[in-house]
Write a structure and sequence with these properties.
The protein is an alpha+beta fold. Helix 2 (9-18) runs antiparallel to helix 5 and helix 5 (65-77) packs across helix 7 (91-104). The protein has helices at residues 3-6, 9-18, 25-32, 37-49, 65-77, 82-86, 91-104, 149-170, 212-222; strands at residues 22-23, 54-55, 61-62, 108-116, 122-131, 134-141, 185-192, 200-201, 204-208. It folds into 2 domains: 3-86, Arc Repressor Mutant, subunit A (Orthogonal Bundle); 91-225, Trna Endonuclease, Chain: A, domain 1 (3-Layer(aba) Sandwich), CATH 3.40.1350. The protein has 9 helices and 9 strands. Strand 5 and strand 6 (134-141) form a beta hairpin. The strands form 2 sheets. Strands 4-5-6-7-9-8 form a 6-stranded mixed beta sheet, sandwiched between helices. Strands 1-3-2 form a 3-stranded antiparallel beta sheet.
Length: 233
Amino acid sequence: MTIMEKYDTHIISSLLKYKSESISMELLAGLTGIGDLDYLNCMTDTLVADGIVTRGDHYQIKLIPQSRLKLAFLLIRSGIEIEKVAEYLDWKEFEAFTKDILLFHEFQVHSRVRFKNSKKKRYEIDLLAIHNSIILCIDCKHWSSRAGKKHALFKAVERQVERTIAFSKEMDFKKFNIQKKDDLQLMPLILTWLVEDIKTYQNVPIVPVFQLSTFLNQIDVYIDEFKIISIDK
């Protein structure tokens, strides 16, 4: 059975567009234009049974952030363009989705890592992901198509390299539960919603979030091809 046969993508799109933690069946009927409540209940029961959404009082559909990410992934798997799905999610949900993928791959993840350098300049890293000797400094770009995006990506890479170098000099091993080892590899990484024309810039990988699992599975093989920042300790 395909996704389109199992789920009603119009219902899923409506749940994402509404952007609420709960929605009544009557309101969902109005949003979708589907007047058959038995059909709506059947389709939403499938989502509940698959652990994508839950039921609340008075048969309402309950949506937590993880629910919205799962719904978005279903739309993408059904063939809807990632750029269109990205319009339904905000940057916090984008980062949450990224964090879930990293945790699945057994990375220790820290969000919104803020620090200062010796000159009191402030920095922030969206996600710091640690697994064995690999430390990823991740910048999440919740961008859709826009003019001049290639140049913006180049600047984003340059700024992320600067942040990563600054972090390498100020890194608190104890705070992030990092063991001091000679083979630590600190790597800047840009994550995007869409597949970009460029895959790397200055040897910094630019990875679409829906290819992140594949990237992490192969990182040990290709890491020598990427920019690694030495740790100044």
